[in-house]
Write a structure and sequence with these properties.
13% strand, elongated, four-stranded mixed sheet, alpha/beta, 26 helices
């Protein structure tokens, strides 16, 4: 039936039938609604449009009308209305066009401006007339309210079930539902053992990547579910390990609302982003049979958050990595309280650059690292010295237990693959031999299963060949050696085989953080905060740039001038000042003669007598004198000393001195002629060996 609102102007344009269903499931289940929407094409014919002037836009099937994001069909419709191409928009209900007033009213404005009509099953409306706009506005408002009402009802019911822990969420691997709907552990013992092994390994190595490498190194796969929900085994990945460690279900907790929808940029679709643990909406503890307890889960999350790489922004410590500076990630500035970063220049420094980076202020402080690292290392070794034996025994047992768990996992994996091979063999034996299309595929699967069995057997053999039978008993011969380990930790610490990452990991077992203050003079302040809250204060001697930066610099300068005026030489003055507790700016242990000479020259005081750096007894020869005596190049002597082929007593002055005797001359000539490869000319060599 024609409507009085339809004018020839409208009939000269296109009639658009807009078809939309909110979800993909509605497209499948609500076929009648879909048929009625497509039948609106006949409604347009009844209103006077020709068949060729009626078009259908159904690009938005399966998309909600709550917003215009991803609704390309709606955008096309609005664009064509704005161009004046459309005379009528038809929909089964105007709510199909938009369920949001912020999208609905702009469409009405454009339709009113371009004289475009809107029609549904109830009638035809003119958005340009007051009555038409009123009716359409009311329908849009009611549609938006209806959407909120539906959401509210669904959300209330969902939250009510979630608060009881009865909401049926997708279970992670390791859990299944019994016929009564209760959640239980997967009856597959291998799945349970592999998950328990993953958690125990992480608590030892404290790194997701290390857990992944450990599993793959030992040939242990992780259980997973395919898209059909069936169990399968696959190699461990970082994402899979992290996903298991972060899931609170393994701690027995039902959690709802761990993520929120948040658009990264305006106009983009919102993406799921994780919430902090204290912002989770619903947490019901002890709802599932857990693999770990809740406190262990919180500890794991803390370690993982602390291991984040961007520790300057996230205020975490980062994973211990190789690098010479020991306090990487755990050092703070005592002046501003921010993290200090490491700079591997000038021998290594700890630099507080936060105020300069974020506020444009000068660098807070930078501290030379070697002296600080040495002091913290000494304090750490002194702290752990009384517990070396207990620590070794506990570490040994933990290591053996880890090996036993890995071997048990390999045994379970071998048992599973033998079953799969047996199953493949039974399937092959049941097939008709003449049916080669099926028999060939089953034969291939059987061969693959047998290869997997051989691989698992080889992995188990390698594991058993390298480990003793008993996993927890300390061998008698090892127990005898452990008695002598006390006091050996410093040697292990300084052993080149111990890499920097292990040293840092050991240090973090006891040290929470270290706070540094360079100070104004030659002493730096180090505050070590131990695990548990105890604090140790250290004063570390530091090098400075000049005598004036020394706390007793003025006193030392005046003392040098007095002693130089009295006739003492520079070496004697340096020794005297060292005995009085003074030090040079570049040396934390003593006063150098060069420091005395510089201050004396600045004051215009001449030396008491010529300083002889290489003065020595007449019974000894210098390297130059020995080379002249034997008619050999002096550089050859220096090369042999540097390479360790020629060993001599070190002189206090730093010179290379040799005894003036025929035995020395003969030995050096033989070394020169390559008759021997090594000469030991130390004066007290025989006495030291006899002692």
């Amino acid at each position: 039936m024609r409507s009085e609102l339809v004018l020839p102007m409208h009939l000269g344009r296109k009639a658009i039938v807009y078809v939309r269903q909110s979800t993909p499931s509605q497209i499948i289940s609500n076929q009648e609604s879909l048929r009625l929407q497509y039948a609106l094409k006949l409604r347009a014919r009844e209103l006077g449009w020709k068949a060729g002037d009626v078009e259908i836009i159904d690009a938005d099937l399966g998309l909600s009308g709550a917003s215009t994001l991803r609704r390309e069909g709606f955008r096309e419709l609005v664009g064509r209305v704005g161009l004046g191409e459309v005379g009528l928009i038809l929909s089964i209900d105007v709510t199909r066009l938009a369920r949001n007033c912020s999208d609905w009213y702009p469409l009405l404005d454009i339709c009113g401006l371009q004289k475009c009509l809107i029609a549904d099953r109830d009638g035809v409306y003119d958005p340009a007339s007051p009555n038409g706009r009123l009716l359409l506005g009311l329908k849009g408002t009611i549609s938006e309210l209806e959407l909120h009402t539906i959401r509210s009802r669904l959300t209330v019911g969902l939250l009510a079930k979630a608060e009881r822990g009865a909401l049926a969420l997708t279970l992670p691997i390791g859990f299944v539902r019994n016929p009564g709907g209760a959640v239980v552990k997967d009856p597959n013992v291998e799945v349970q053992g592999r998950l328990a092994f993953l958690f125990s390994t992480f608590l030892k190595v404290k790194s997701v990547s290390q857990v992944m490498r450990h599993l793959n190194r030992n040939g242990l796969d992780l259980p997973a579910r395919d898209r059909h929900g069936d169990l399968h085994w696959t190699a461990a990945t970082l994402a899979a390990v992290a996903r298991i460690l972060r899931n609170p279900a393994y701690a027995g907790a039902f959690v709802y609302g761990r993520t929120r929808l948040k658009a990264q940029r305006p106009g983009n679709l919102p993406q799921k982003t994780p919430r902090p643990i204290d912002e989770w909406r619903i947490v019901v503890r002890d709802q599932y049979p857990g693999y770990i307890d809740w406190q262990t889960y919180l500890k794991i999350r803390h370690i993982m958050n602390d291991n984040k790489v961007d520790y300057m922004r996230t205020n975490s410590r980062g994973v211990p990595r190789n690098g010479g500076l020991l306090l990487h990630g755990i050092v703070r500035c005592a002046r501003c309280g921010h993290k200090m970063y490491v700079r591997y220049q000038n021998g290594g420094e700890y630099v507080c650059n936060h105020l300069r980076t974020h506020q444009g202020l000068p660098t807070c402080q930078h501290v030379r690292a070697p002296a600080i690292d040495a002091a913290v290392t000494q304090a750490f070794l002194e702290a752990v010295a009384p517990a070396e034996f207990e620590a070794f025994s506990a570490a040994y047992k933990a290591r053996r237990q880890s090996v036993a768990e890995a071997r048990r996992g390999l045994e379970q994996q071998l048992e599973r693959r033998r079953y799969e091979a047996t199953l493949a063999e039974r399937q092959f034996n049941k097939v008709d031999p003449d049916n080669r299309l099926v028999a060939a595929e089953l034969e291939r699967r059987w061969e693959t299963a047998l290869n997997d069995v051989r691989t698992a057997e080889e992995a188990l053999s390698r594991s058993e060949a390298g480990q003793p039978a008993s996993p927890l008993v300390l061998p008698r011969e090892m127990g005898a050696k452990v008695v002598h380990i006390q006091g050996r930790l410093p040697k292990i610490w300084h052993d080149p085989a111990t890499d920097d990452a292990r040293r840092k990991a050991l240090l973090r077992c006891l040290v929470e953080q270290v706070v540094l203050n360079r100070g104004e003079h030659e002493t730096g302040s180090v505050r070590i905060i131990w695990r548990g809250g105890l604090v140790t204060e250290l004063a570390v001697p530091m090098t400075v740039s000049s005598v004036d930066r020394l706390e007793r610099g003025a006193e030392m300068r005046a003392r040098i001038l007095v002693l130089a005026t009295s006739g003492l030489n520079d070496s004697a003055i340096a020794a005297t000042l060292t005995a009085e507790g003074h030090r040079s700016p570049a040396c934390v242990e003593r006063v150098l003669p060069t420091t005395v000479a510089a201050i004396r020259r600045d004051a215009g005081i001449a030396a008491a007598h010529k300083q002889t750096r290489w003065a020595h007894d007449t019974c000894l020869l210098s390297a130059v004198q020995l080379a002249k005596e034997l008619s050999i190049p002096v550089n050859w002597l220096y090369v042999q000393i540097r390479k360790g082929r020629l060993v001599i007593d070190p002189a206090s002055s730093g010179a290379h001195l040799f005894r003036q005797s025929p035995e020395v001359f003969t030995a050096i000539r033989r070394l020169r002629n390559r008759e021997i490869e090594h000469v030991d000319l130390r004066i007290n060599r025989r006495e030291k060996r006899g002692h």
